[in-house]
Amino acid sequence: MPVIPPLPYTRFLEQADTCDVVIFSGRSDTSIAIETATGGAFSHTAMVVVAPDGTKLLWQAAGETIEVDPIKGAKHTGAQLGPLDATMRDLIFGFRDAPVYRQLSWDRPADLTDRLWKVLTSLDSRPFPDTWKLIEEYGAGAYLGLEETTGPMFCSELVAFTYQGVGLLDDPPPANAYSPTDFSSTSTSSLRVEPVVGEFAVDVAIADPPS
What is the CATH number of domain 6-203? Predict the structure, then answer.
């Protein structure tokens, strides 16, 4: 893997914008299983969302409850939103995941927030599959081209499906064909989300653990 330049955590919070992605490498058994099954260096994908009121959020699919989702007004598993800063701290310090930030530079349409919010509200609370179902769904999409996006969704599938919903990603291949590593610069897939300003390892040294 090429050397990824660092970016201070506070700079990340300032620069993060709608549809930027954060990819994580993890240490848990599940993370290692995902990285092994997909042949990549990353096990989790999330997407930055700027809400209509300007609040920065993180959109992801997870099997755990993390932060209060502003759409539901409560914590829940599956597809979920959470405050960007608080959610990042939970992932970094609680789950011990190492984040890499991929910043997009593109002309965001004036109606992007409205279009995106419709996609998010339609997917929010979609269940998260167990590890074996996740690997099965990914294999069906990546190796057989079979779409399985009506049931539980894993993290990179959720981001890909959201990208497709706002016109950032073609379909086919189906959303369940994408792994977390497909959202990194090391990907050899056909993923195209250019132009990209850069890819940065988020320097969490000055980020405090969640209270």
Answer: 3.90.1720.10
